[in-house]
Specification:
Helices cover 44% and strands 12% of the residues. It contains 9 helices and 6 strands. By secondary structure, the chain is of the alpha/beta class. InterPro entries: MetalloPept_cat_dom_sf (IPR024079), MtfA_fam (IPR010384), MtfA_N (IPR042252). This is Zinc-dependent peptidase.
Amino acid sequence: MKALTRWLAAAVGMLQPSKPAIPEELWQAAWQRLPFLAGMPTDDASALRAMTEDFLARKVFSGAHGYEPDNLARLTIAIQACLPVLKLGLQAYEGWRGIIVYPGEFVIPRQVVDDDGVQHEYEEDALGEAWDGGPVVLSWFDDPADYDGAHVVIHEFAHKLDQLSGGADGMPPLHAGMSQEEWLRDFDAAYADFCQRVDAEEATLIDPYAAENPAEFFAVCGEVFFTSAQDLKNAYPEIYRHLCDFYKQNPASWSHVTSS
């Protein structure tokens, strides 16, 4: 009986996805590509590393257009993907497995129907796209400067969280104790104000792309929340407060000392 128990335990272990150990040199190389993580509390940085290992074991990366993402690309993407769910858990990303990586920008075919019922087809340059119920599609640049300030991974994984409500509309499923009424009131007001500023061609710290629709506003605000927290807190303090409650993190409180 003991031998059978040991055999079953070993068999179950073989069925579980193994967590790849991340070499320290590779972890540091990826961490250095993400300067906004400098100052993250030590305990959170350790938890992020453990979650990243789990994420890499669960998700399947594939390249496109003849490109195959290397270990640095996969790890850098995985760290950023885990950041929004650090306090929420990887169960938020269940139900899909694929991450498709392009070598730079890619083109997405679009179809729209105008008010007269005429269908128009066009192509749109993109850095990322999150498919509802499907994979996340991302671009990768060897030089971080080529992203021109965009944080596409955080952006697309914010969309994944938004989609948990049944569709990306800027209203993700809220936690117990959070008010949907207050969320909608404050996000609607901030979005209207932001669109007005963009229409007036004001310079904004938030990417003007956030004015596209409420879902993009939520995703872009998520980018800024993690990468330039104080800017979001200054511009829209109520939005910052809601995102603190939603992500269960407070990046504006991080110090400026690297704690990886």
